[in-house]
Amino acid sequence: MAPRLEVHIPISPTPMFLRQAWALAASLRRHGGAVGATATVTAWVSPELPGLPDLDRLHPWARSVGLRFRWVDSALFARHWYYGTALARWADSFDADVVLMLDADVLVCASLDALVEQLLASGAVYGLPAHASPLDEAEWRALFASADLPPPRLDHRPSGAGFYVHAREQRMPAYFNLGVIAARADAMATCGRGIVAEMERVNAFIDPALDRARSFFRCQLALALALARQQVDAKALDLRDNFPNDASFEAAHPSAAAAVRLLHYLRQDRGVSKNRDFGSARAYSGLLWRAGLVGTDALLQWRLRALGRCPLDGALQRLRMHWLQPAPQLADPSGFI
């Protein structure tokens, strides 16, 4: 019997995010191996629609790919905006053997069976070191001191250190890109204890109203504090398990690029733009058949084609009444925008 896997993603209730959630869940079913065939995906949804409609009822297609929707607590969202949505995923206990915390813009491209077996055998939390560090070494020490933690071990290099000039000499603690965080369920639960409080400590150290650029990474910084406070073993994830659609990474790591298991299509400056290409049925169809895509953008296109037609259109039409009502104020209450 295959180990049980559960996946958690943060989304907004918009066409772009719903289409990404479908693509992620469907790719897990089609490409994810034995564990993907029975895995569940929970989409934690920012409470942005009047009345918080029953998304499981409005999207019956979701059941067939193991996807379910859960509204994020309104008070948490009001206080911490989309960053609260990202961290709400640690709110409950986990039911499966292994947990993946993924961004919505991640696609499963190959079997996850070996990755899940690796995680089962380890008590560590795995993540890809962030492409660059938002803090220098003195600032890392100051952040940890402000959070009443011992000085951090600055034993990780950014994953972009080999080719991003600003990252070449950087050193940091276990500071991971939040696109893919992977662990056995017990380790994931441990690192999630008090994680929202860790983000509040980050906000006290980096004022979002004064330092918008670095405060963008507050969830990743909170996870770094949580790993240290809970004394969880943290290990670097293989690049193929959080590979960005980035030409620099493709050139520097051709072997990993040829063996991608989890593709993180976060870059929007080449052939693919998730904001544009997942926002409507017409745009998505255009992505599937666009000529000239190369590298991991082409891999994304090929894997999406294999999923067949996206079933969203009818369900999205049923949500039209909610979008026509006045939208809530979405400005970051902490001053991010």
Describe the structure.
The chain has a single domain, classed as Spore Coat Polysaccharide Biosynthesis Protein SpsA, Chain A (Alpha-Beta Complex). It has helices at 15-31, 33-38, 55-58, 74-88, 113-120, 137-146, 185-191, 195-205, 212-215, 218-229, 247-252, 254-257, 274-277, 281-288, 295-306, 312-318, 320-323, and strands at 5-11, 40-45, 67-71, 98-102, 106-108, 125-129, 176-184, 234-236, 243-244, 262-264. The radius of gyration is 19 Å and the shape is globular. The chain has 17 helices and ten strands. The chain starts with a strand and ends in a 14-residue tail after the last helix. Mean pLDDT is 91; it is low at 321-337. The longest helix has 17 residues, at 15-31. It is of the alpha/beta class.
Would you identify the regions where 5 or more consecutive residues have pLDDT less than 50? 321-337
Number of E strands: 10
Return the CATH topology: Spore Coat Polysaccharide Biosynthesis Protein SpsA, Chain A
Helix and strand pattern: EHHEHEHEEHEHEHHHHEEHHEHHHHH
| CATH structural architecture | Alpha-Beta Complex
Largest sheet, strands/sense/barrel: 7 strands, mixed
Helix content: 40-55%
Query: Overall 3D geometry?
Result: globular
Which structural class do the helices and strands define? Answer: alpha/beta
Please give the alpha-carbon distance between the first and last residues.
48 Å
CATH class: Alpha Beta
Strand-residue fraction?
5-15%
Strand order of the largest sheet: 3-2-1-4-7-6-8
- Roughly what is the average pLDDT, rounded to an integer? 91
Name of the CATH superfamily: Spore Coat Polysaccharide Biosynthesis Protein SpsA, Chain A
Query: Roughly how many Å is the radius of gyration?
Result: 19 Å
Number of domains: 1
Number of helices: 17
